[in-house]
TrEMBL record:
The keyword Signal does not apply. Residues 11-220 form the YjeF N-terminal domain. PANTHER family: ATP-DEPENDENT (S)-NAD(P)H-HYDRATE DEHYDRATASE (PTHR12592:SF0), ATP-DEPENDENT (S)-NAD(P)H-HYDRATE DEHYDRATASE FAMILY MEMBER (PTHR12592). K(+) binds at N66, D127, S163. Binds 1 potassium ion per subunit. One of its GO terms (biological process) is metabolite repair. Its EC number is 4.2.1.136, 5.1.99.6. Residues 228-497 form the YjeF C-terminal domain. This is Bifunctional NAD(P)H-hydrate repair enzyme. It comes from Massilia cellulosiltytica. It comes from the Bacteria. (6S)-NADPHX binds at residues 65-69, 131-137, 160, 263, 317, 370, 437. It catalyses: (6S)-NADHX + ADP = AMP + phosphate + NADH + H(+); (6S)-NADPHX + ADP = AMP + phosphate + NADPH + H(+); (6R)-NADHX = (6S)-NADHX; (6R)-NADPHX = (6S)-NADPHX.
Amino acid sequence: MDNPLYSVAQIRAIEQAAQSQLRPLGTSGPSPLMRRAGEAASTYALEVLGGLPTGRILVLAGPGNNGGDALEVAANLANLGANVDVVHLAGTAPSPETGHALARAQASRARFVSDVADCNGCCLVVDGLFGIGLARPLAGQARALVEWTHGMACPVLALDVPSGLDADTGSVVGPDGVAVRATHTITFLGDKPGLHTGDGCDHAGRVHVNRLGAHGLHTEAAHARLNAPALFAGCLAPRRNNSHKGTYGDVAVLGGARGMAGAGILAARAALYAGAGRVFVAAVDPGPGLDPLQPEIMFRDAAGFAFDGRTVVAGPGMGDSAGATHLLSKVIDGTGPLVVDADALNLCAASPDLAARLAAHGGEVVITPHPLEAARLLGVTAAVVQADRLENARELAERLDAVVVLKGAGSVIARPDGEVALNATGNPGLATGGTGDVLAGLVGTLLGQGWPAWEAALAATWLHGAAADRLVAGGAGPIGLTAGELPRAIRAELNALVADAALA
Ligand SMILES: NC(=O)C1=CN([C@@H]2O[C@H](COP(=O)(O)OP(=O)(O)OC[C@H]3O[C@@H](n4cnc5c(N)ncnc54)[C@H](OP(=O)(O)O)[C@@H]3O)[C@@H](O)[C@H]2O)[C@@H](O)CC1
Ligand SMILES: [K+]
């Protein structure tokens, strides 16, 4: 199933097409879209509340059409018998739709109040301050209202977009911005990337999409989507009986610098539990010759190791020594599938020559930077990367001609042709050392089994997050979840996916 995500510009185009389609021929009156948005949101509000509440509902309505949606909700809920308070930040030139919604709300039993001082006991806050028309950081009364909602223990339902959040990028509009932290968001006409990455993951809550009946108008191909097993199901294959370890690929982790042996071992364990036929740690410095917990992993001196014909996961615990740089250079000039992570990314960032040769690498390449590593590669700060995760991941994928997994909340998977997927699995338990090494090892195994880079990156990111979700559901986190627990959970998720795919 496809889960397209639309930019604000694309939503505006869809909105225009829908308006002309829905308006009676030859008329120019208000379009029914806002009415539909209000109806959909009122129905969803009652679903969130479990029916018509006895407590008060507070509706925050802004000056634009997002405020119009909110006024429709206020009128609908009040007409159904709910106790509704409205704080309305009136605009100077409301659209005909918003003017109509205001008249409906004023004619209903909804109570218009000037501030929220007597609304502390409410059972639901409806945020209709700003949607896709947000143009600058929140200030004044709008900011005060949003900060007030932060103290509310009740559900907060955002209309279209949590106010203060950029629907394209998922960052709070700043500097020093604030945004509503919704428990639920009902978003209109199409889903939006900003609800699923960066700050959006903390501000949107559960996202519900309502197309307002505008089906068939989403003609412009979305270049972003939510990651889902359907996007890589074609690569999920059950094991053949007539197979052997050579069938499932060799993965070699280029790492093992002094003092950092653990990172390479974590990547290697992940590769093993994800089903690689044989797994090596090719160590740049002398170190452990055995992982006592996972004796299946073979340890070699990287200097004399034959990387050819093997999938290389370069970077976990690799360090930045001259020896490490030389070995990285050698594998980049090879032709096999390649995962570039951690120290290997920093070395590429420091050397335009190495970066150019990486871009020219003959085989499949996936790079797995966290925001700071991505920033170094792009020559900007991590804050700049985080301010627009999608565009920066796209830019990096194009520059390095590689599939990029930009890690962090709502990981962004980007392809050199501009295609992007956002990953919705995972939780803050993954914010701990070593989880990136596990992801890199997992990607390596899938590449080693012949998966294309795009599908390998999608599947690995999805599985990695799903494994963390499985662990948290079982009580192992999010606080204190360790990277070493992930490989077994990844194995469980992968086998479940393959079994499902076989049944489908
Ligand atoms: N049209 C339709 O048929 C449909 C529209 N729909 C709904 O409309 C929403 C988009 O509506 P919109 O374009 O009016 O933008 P919206 O988000 O309400 O904000 C713009 C207003 O806020 C103001 N403003 C901006 N930033 C500000 C700030 N920081 N602080 C203070 N003011 C600020 C700005 O005024 P400015 O001062 O910038 O001139 C303007 O007045 C969309 O998200 C969806 O909910 C759905 O019902 C589907 C059908
Ligand atoms: K809103």
